[in-house]
Amino acid sequence: MKKVLTLVLALCILLAAALPVLAEETLTVWYSGGVNGKALEYAAQLYTAQHPDVAINIEQVATSDRETRLTVALTSGDMTGLPDITLFQDYSAQRFLQLFPGCLADLSESIDMSCFAQDKVGYWTYEGKVYALPFDSAASADFVRLDLLAEAGYGLDDLKDITWDRYIEIGKDVQAKTGKYMLTETDYSNLMMVLVKSAATWYFNEDGSANIENNAGVRAALETIKKLHDSGIVMENEDWAAFISSMNEGKIVSTVTGNWILGSIVSAEDQSGLWGMTTIPSMSEDMGHYSSNGGSSWAVLSSSEKQELAIDFLKTFMTDEFNTYLIKDLATVPTYLPAQKLECASEPYAFTNGQKVFADIMDYTAKTPVIAYGPYNADVQNTMQLAIDQVLAGTSVDEALKTAQQTMDFLMEE
User: Fold this and answer.
1) For a FRET experiment, which of 43, 53, 122, 140 has its CA 20 to 30 Å from that of 154?
2) SS3 (DSSP) at 159
3) What is the Cα–Cα distance from 258 to 253, expressed in whole angstroms?
4) What is the pLDDT of residues 116-127, one digit of tens each?
């Protein structure tokens, strides 16, 4: 009998060892698919491997739905069903921070924000505190088809640190010799953001009021878009799918946007080795070659009962293993500055003809202007899209800027 009991006990121990550890705590995270989702899943794998008593419940929620559900909850005070952590588009940062103070957990004391690109930190800074962990770099660059450029007698260095006026000159020559458009665009909305920020300005004054009509950077951006449109060197696509196919199908020579576009460019595997990257053109000699467009960050909701655990999980995004995966497997550049020292960050990248493109993007990220954002970014983007459409239809830049200023003044008084 004693031997039987001993055998039963031994079997119980073996079975217990073989069974998975049941999670004692669960973190719920909202995200919006694509690279963000793959990165989140990998971070969850890394964290749960070290913390088997924690489960990461990942829920895909579209950006517009996330922000709508959060806004409704914060307005009503009913936080039922909200996650512990959510992905935010950086341009939405100040709207939530200023209109719903205290809705996000302060990460300033828990995470060393000097380790991240400061333009990204700036999005999430409010009254001296930082409320999100910066994620992907949105540093802008000019991605170029080297073979098509060479066909017209130019090299990548001919596009480095030039003005948009020079870019248009080269574009006309390239188009005449190759029959290809120099640039691809949809509605110019992304490019407008890139241009304005490259002038180290934005649409608001320090006191939060709209700064459009008399903003030299905004004016220069609108004038530049008008020049590009009139030059005929831009392939103006109807939608995002056509924009991507214009690159993948070799219809254009370059695209100027956030470096996240690299993930779409490399999907055309037959073009490996044919692409290069350089700085964006400047609008004038005294305006810059560095900017950003888009990007996202991870925030912990203050309504979460597991804030400490959530913050601990976010620190996974600061590990070498995670950032190596982000660069090598997802062709995505982190804003975590120590990642610059990773071996994969300085390796030649075959798709960009051996150029150390990830190291270059990180360098661009560090040089991107830090500007002040307000809570009305979505409104001003819509307003400026209307201004772009008006100018391209024949309205003067002066009149379009005046209308945009009046529109924002009205919206912000409500």
Assistant:
1) 140
2) helix
3) 16
4) 988 889 889 999
